[in-house]
Amino acid sequence: MRKSLVSAIAFALAGFSLATVAAPANDTAELATTQLPRTVRPTHYDVAVVPHADKLAFDGKVSIAIDVLQPTPSITLNAMNMTFANVSLAAAKGKASFAAPKVAVDADAQTATFIFDHAIPAGSYVLTMDYTGKIGTQANGLFAIDYDTKADGKKRALYTQFENSDARRFIPSWDEPAYKATFTLSATVPASQMAVSNMPVASKKDIGNGLAKVTFQPSPKMSTYLLFFGLGEFDRATTKSDGVEIGVITQKGLTSQAQFTLDTGKAVLQEYNAYFGVPYPLPKLDNIASPGQSQFFSAMENWGAIYTFEYALLLDPTISTQSDKQEVFNTAAHEMAHQWFGDLVTMRWWDDLWLNEGFASWLASRTTERLHPEWHTNLEAVFTREGAMSRDAVATTHPVVQHVATVEQASQAFDSITYSKGESVIRMLEAYVGADKWQKGVQAYIKAHAYSNTVSDDLWKAIDAAAGMPVSTVAHDFTLQPGIPLVRVESVSCANGSTTLKLSQGEFTRDRPDKKPLSWHVPVIAKTVGGATSSTLLENGAGSLTVAGCAPVLVNAGQTGYYRTLYAPAQIKALQGAFAKLDPIDQLGVTADVWALGMGGLQPASDVLDLIKAAPLDATPLLWDGIASDFSTLDDYYEGDAARQAALRKYAISRLAPKFAQLGWEAKPGEEAPVAILRAHLIGTLSHLGDANVIAEARRRYASDTMSPELRKSILAVVAAHADGATWDKLHAAAKAEKTPLVKDRLYALLATPSDEALAKRALELALTDEPGATNSAAMISAAARAHPELAFDFAVAHKDKVDQFVDSTSAARYYPMLAGGSLQLSTIDKIKAFADKYIAPTSRRDAETSIANIRYRAMVRKDRLPAVDAWLKKNG
Predict the structure, then answer these.
(1) Quick one: which H or E segment has residue 11?
(2) What is the mean pLDDT of residues 386-396?
């Protein structure tokens, strides 16, 4: 699953207590956390559904082949929002049958139990039932998306989304990843519409009254959360890659916008077949483009039928940017990586979710670098690491491998630790082992565990064997405990043309300065500037390393390590002097460390400004991206203090404006992709900083409708952020008139971004109406929260019954606290606590507690760190 780009990913279902039942002796190898009795295991589902899209309901019939592992008087499986009829159990072979069971539904536990009049002996059976279910309007279970078309009015399409625990809304099932089975799906649908699932269509039979019965080929053995069904007025474009049919399915008339994804799929499949050494095992691989959005995810890796929202899959020539193009590629590569890491080999339980998400993120990044080196995305590894460390540095963090006890906790496991720290740790381990040995270990792991379930140690055993070294020792330190190592450069001494470093290891935190540090085995790569690298494994909290040369020292050279580096003042001063000579990725890494350590109080907070001052105008565009982000963050810290903020803005504009002038408003022939992305970013940042020239030019281009597609989003964002009432009304009229969902969704989100609080209130009220569309309302409230966190949070809580209808259930426990998470007011903490106490289960408050921790951190930065920035600006500004 790809994390949502609409807002932070979010999660929740009705939580329930863990109920682990002792495994029978023959199931010991499959021991995993479960919330179902271990007495029964499914092997095959034969499912027939009849969706009634107009009524938002469906009828179903399922026959489940099961193995009863030990005598039991009842069968319990997962089911949600269902009614049952005609339940029967028969022996798989022979004539044995049972009287119709009693049905007991537990809504809180999301289960249905079928109770028989006597114990069912161990053996193989078929459990059959009719049932009814609901079609939702948010991305859980089977759901409907309504969308506009340019030529044919409003349309409705149906899709499914089951990860992590929503297959139970579509099929009564053992809805846990370790209960793998095969599936045969059929559906009675309008004959004029296209039905799609994981496997190709086996048959389509006209049954009269404008209906057809579509039956799909049987699926491979897989977890329930990977099943997919879609239905609508679709078009499909196809190509072939290594004998597999690659398809992209869109609403009618939009396949031309999917050509890049189609080409990407062809190239990436070839890359992955070679990397894994196991060919993609299904006959087809579709990517289904859906209008709308979710607060939880942007794409889902259903085996053979990847589901992706249009904004992350299609390229609309009127509005899509280079950044969009790169995101489309990365999303497709991420979901295709899951076809092996997640689908073919699946984590046994959500504790090891990172085996899916961390690896898909890492492999997508690796593949983007390999197939599009001109994008220079290798440098983005630093931003990925920083995203993880921002979360990992507060007390509410968790290990990469975490214990998950409830459905709600499983939903909350989809966070930056699972994705970004997982990716960063893999990158570090690959560098430590060597790429060839790492690949050999991955191939062995995939081959050994195909069509089954694993835990993290299954991977480490394969890597240890391939590498011939105890990689698992390092891996356990970074995945079984939380936090960030802090590598201190205690001393530097040069003799005979070599430099010896003495290092120590502590722990970096943002909110626990007196915490007793954890201990890690830390792979350290270092060099002198311009010299060759040397490496060591830092153990027991201390170590030394000798590097060639006597120039300034750079630790974590190449930035593959997941740790912070703290230099003595003289060392950081020397790095500042040599900053222009550093490799681009090291410029990014050093700047990121200095920023974090300064804000954490381990060195002057103003040190980052010295590095920014030293940054050459011709440095990599990604460094200037990072500088722009740092200025924007500092500006937010000054919010409400106009005089001090003005001093920061004056200096920030003086650094950024010359770079923007160098780029200009118009793209130059042959310019590199990162330049186009930086141009858009600088427009946004300079607007945020109040640059009158940029704001005026954006307004001029908007008024004269001279917006290039590459800058249309950026210009509209500037205009919306600085809108007055008349401009807001004009944007609102454009949103109502727009018939392209991809553009329409963007316009409604922009309506919620004005800095003017009165206009933000208008947007919030609009979000509660039917006008924006069912999946846009939550995104509008999130957008308003970026500039007005207290306003958005108070509004959402005051209208919670209505807002709940717009938030997919997997997002609920995180959605509300994150609205307030950007606040700078300590009084907001009590509001979050009160909300959590009233609405969030005590076992599911990690995200609320993280929002609280971040508010406290920002308050600390304002009080304790900004004075150093003020002094620096007074001296240098």
Answers:
(1) none
(2) 96
142 φ/ψ angles, rounded to the nearest 5 degrees: -90, 125
Helix (H) or strand (E) holding 773: none
Quickly state the pLDDT bin for 93 (edges 50, 70, 90). Answer: confident
Would you mind telling me the total number of residues written for the chain in this entry?
Answer: 877
Phi-psi domain of 507 (left: phi exceeds 0; alpha: psi -120 through 50; beta: other): beta
Give residue-wise pLDDT tens across range 628-679: 999 999 999 999 999 999 999 999 999 999 999 999 999 999 999 999 999 9
| Cβ atoms of 850 and 393 closer than 8 Å | no
Give whole-number Cα distances, 416 to 327, 357, 565, 578, in Å: 17, 10, 21, 33
- How far, in Å, CA of 310 to CA of 290, rounded? 5
Whether 445 shows a pLDDT value over 50: the answer reads yes
Q: How far is it, in rounded angstroms, from Cα 845 to Cα 849?
A: 6
DSSP-H helix ranges across 400-540: 407-412, 416, 422-433, 435-449, 456-467, 471-479
Burial class (CB in 10 A: 0-12, 13-18, 19+), 46: middle
Q: Where are the alpha helices (DSSP H) in 456-614?
A: 456-467, 471-479, 569-577, 584-599, 607-614
Q: Is 566 helix (H, G, I), strand (E, B) or coil?
A: strand
State residue 736's pLDDT score: 96
> Cα dist. 811→24, 167, 172, 757, 817 in Å?
36, 17, 23, 26, 11
Q: What are the backbone dihedrals phi and psi of residue 113, each rounded to the nearest 5 degrees, phi first?
A: -115, 130
- Partner residues linked to 130 by β-bridges: 61, 85
d(CA 440, CA 469): 13
What gap in Å lies between CA 249 and CA 851, rounded to an integer?
A: 38
3-class DSSP string for 201-257: EEEEEEEECCEEEEEECCCCCECHHHCCEEEECEEEEEEEECCEEEEEEEECCCHHH
Closest Cα to residue 701, out of 690, 711, 692? 711
CA 595 to centroid of chain Cα atoms: 24
Instruction: State yes or no: pLDDT of 18 exceeds 70.
Output: no
User: 327, 335, 430, 507: which is the annotated catalytic residue?
Assistant: 335
Q: Are 365 and 423 in contact (CB under 8 A)?
A: yes
Buried b (16+ CB within 10 A) or exposed e, 361-375: bbbbbbbbbebbeeb
**CA–CA gap between residue 20 and residue 34 (Å, rounded):** 6
Buried-exposed string 11-25: b where 16+ CB fall within 10 A, e elsewhere: bbbebbeeeeeebee
The answer to whether 196 and 228 are in contact (CB under 8 A) is yes
CA distance 48 to 267: 35
- Could you tell me the strand order of the sheet in which 141-149 lies? 141-149, 153-161, 229-232, 194-197
State the average pLDDT for the chain: 94
- Tally the C-alpha atoms within 13 A of residue 300's C-alpha that lie toward its C-beta: 27
pLDDT tens column, 98-151: 899 999 999 999 999 999 999 999 999 999 999 999 999 999 999 999 999 988
- Give me 343's structure tokens: 């689908």
Q: Are strands 123-134 and 229-232 parallel, antiparallel or unpaired?
A: unpaired
Q: Are 353 and 347 in contact (CB under 8 A)?
A: yes
Burial label, 340 (beta-carbon count in 10 A; 0-12, 13-18, 19+)? buried
Q: Cβ neighbours of residue 524 under 8 Å, at least 6 residues apart?
A: 487, 503, 535, 536, 537, 538, 543, 545, 555, 556, 561, 563
Q: Is 671 a catalytic residue?
A: no
Distance between CA 776 and CA 734 in Å, rounded? 16
